[in-house]
Amino acid sequence: MTSSDSAQECYVHITLPGETEFVTAGKFALATNRQGIPTGRFVYGRSYLRRENAVPINPLERKLSSRTYATTMLAGVFGALRDASPDYWGRRVIEKYTGKAQLGEIDYLLYSPDDRAGALGFGLNREPPAPRRKFNRTLDLERLQKLADAIIADEDLPEGPDAEQVQKLMLDGTSMGGARPKAVVEDDAGLWIAKFNRPDDKWNHARVERAMLVLARECSLQTSESKVTAIGGRDVLLVKRFDRQQTEKGYRRARMVSALTLLRAEDAHRDRNKWSYVLLVEELRRISSQPRTDAPELFRRMCFNALISNTDDHPRNHAVIAMDKEWKLSPAYDLIPSIPVRIERRDLALICGDMGRYAHVGNLLSQSARFLVDADETKKTVNEMEQTVRNKWYDIARREGVTEKDCGKIASAFAYPGFRLAITG
Ligand SMILES: Nc1ncnc2c1ncn2[C@@H]1O[C@H](COP(=O)(O)OP(=O)(O)OP(=O)(O)O)[C@@H](O)[C@H]1O
Ligand SMILES: [Mg+2]
Questions:
Q1: Could you read off the pLDDT of 248-274 as tens digits, one per residue?
Q2: Is 183 in the pocket of ligand 1 (CB under 6 A)?
Q3: Does residue 406 contact residue 204 with C-beta atoms inside 8 Å?
Q4: Residues with a beta carbon under 5 angstroms from ion ligand 2
Q5: What angle do CA 307, 210, 250 make, to 5 degrees?
C-alpha cells in the first residue's frame, strides 16, 4: 500500500540488554514484487553482528545471521517490526496529524515517536538518535484526553500559537498498539500506559479493566501494577509498562514480540486456524527461558479469559519479552469482559483445545498436558478459578469503583452457563 512519496527503507535501532542507548541493528526495506505483492527485506548490519552482546530481534531466530531475510506476510512488515508499529489508534492519530488518509507502513514506523513497545527504534539515518529524556507527564493527561476525544469525534485539532506543541503531545504514545485511545505518560515511578474512556463506551472501561486486573491477580495471574486516576471528572486507567525499567542512566527496554509473530500468523481472518493457545504454548515452551512457569501461566490466562468472557483475547493481546538475553511470557494485559447474548456457547479468539475456540471447561482441559500442567491438578486449578471469578468479581468491581449499574451490565460475562454445559453425543 505504499505510495510513491512513502519511505521505502529505514534503519532499525535497538537498545541492547543492560543498556539505555540505541545502537544500529540493521536495515529494513519494503518494495513491491512483480506480482504487485509488498515484500519486506531485512538485513543485520555488519557492525551489529560483530558486537559481542548483539541479540536477535525475534526469539524465533535461534542465532544471528548475516543473510537477507524476506517476507510477504503482514504486507511485508516482519512480525517483530510490526509489533513495534502503531495499530488502529496510533494510525488514526498519525493520519490526523499528517492530514493523510493512509500512509506507507514505513511512514507509520517513522512517525510514531520513540516510546514504542519493545526495544526497537526506527530512523532514516544510520546513526540512532540520542535516547529521549522527556516524556509526557501525568499532568498532561487532561490535555491528552481532550485530544483523544477530538480524534474520536473527528474534530479539527486545536490551532493557534501552541498548536505544534499540542500536536507533538498528541503524537506521543501513538506507537503503542491497540484500538482504544491511549497515551504514554511518566511519573516518578516510571512509564505508564494511560487508557482513556471513550464517550461512547457502554460502561466505565477504566474501572472495569482495573477490576479485571485485580481479579486476575486473585486467580494467580501475573499482571502489571495499575491504578485509576480521575482527570477532569473522568476516569483514566494507568498500567505500568513492563517493557521499561527505570535506571539512573535512563530506561532499559525489553524486546517484545506478540503471539501473532510467534505463531507466524496474519491478522486476517483467513489465518485464524493459526490463532491458537495450543500452538502458542508449543512455541512458548521452545523459546521461553522458564517454560515450567510460563506454560502453566498461559493455561491460567486461557481459563481466566474463558471465565470472564474475554473474547477479544486475540494474538496481539499476548506477548513475550526479553529485558535481558532470555525471553519469557509478558504479564497479562487487556483483560476485558464481554457480554455476548448466547449463554450456551462463547468462543475465545484463539483455539483452546479439541473443541476449537469454545470457552468450555472440557475444551480447556483437552490439551492441558501441553501446558505442562498435571491433569488432576489442572481440574482443581480450573475449579478454584471458576469459584474465585464467580464469588469475587462483584465485590472487587464495586471496591474498584465500578457502579452498581455497570456491574449489572457486565454480570453475564462471569462464569457463564456454557462453561459447564453438559456436552452430549
Ligand atoms: N503494561 C504494558 N507494558 C508494555 N506494553 C503494554 C502493556 N500493556 C499493553 N502493552 C502493549 O500495548 C498494546 C496496546 O495495549 P492494550 O492491548 O491494552 O490496548 P487496547 O487498545 O485495549 O487493545 P485492543 O485493540 O486489543 O483492544 C498491546 O498490544 C501491547 O503491545
Ligand atoms: Mg489489545
A1: 999 999 999 999 999 999 998 889 999
A2: no
A3: yes
A4: 178, 317, 334
A5: 125
